[in-house]
Amino acid sequence: MEKETLFIAFSTQKGGVGKTAFTVLMASYLHYVKELETAVVDCDYPQHSIVEMRQRDMEQVMKDNYYKKMAYNQFTTLKRKAYPVEKSLPEDAIKTAETLIENATKQPDIIFFDLPGTLNSKGVVKTLAGMDYIFSPVSADRVVLESTLKFATMLNENLVSVGKGNIKGLHLIWNMVDGREKNELYEVYENVIGELGLNILKTFVPDSKRFRRELTSGHKPVFRSTLFPAHNTLLKGSNLDLLAKEILQTIKQ
Question: What pTM did the predictor assign?
Answer without folding.
Answer: 0.94
